[in-house]
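can u do me a favor
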């Protein structure tokens, strides 16, 4: 489903909701937004997170990884 179609369906659904359910829908959407922002801030506030993230991306780019099969075998 395309993003435009999703947004249109959300818009149409919201327009059909009674006022009591609109309040619930708004609370839910705000919680989703707030949770994402809080999780991002929690990661960014960890010491060395940015450096670790950059190193992980470099490891993936260069193939310095462990296969899932090897990890699963050692569990």
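np, heres the sequence
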């Amino acid at each position: 489903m395309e993003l435009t179609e999703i947004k249109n369906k959300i818009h149409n659904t919201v327009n059909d909701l009674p006022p009591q359910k609109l309040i619930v829908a708004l609370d839910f959407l705000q919680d989703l937004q707030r949770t994402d922002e809080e999780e991002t801030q929690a990661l960014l506030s960890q010491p060395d997170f940015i450096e670790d993230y950059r190193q992980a991306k470099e490891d993936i780019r260069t193939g310095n990884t462990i296969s899932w099969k090897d990890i699963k075998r050692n569990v």
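The two ends are 38 Å apart (CA to CA). hope that helps!!
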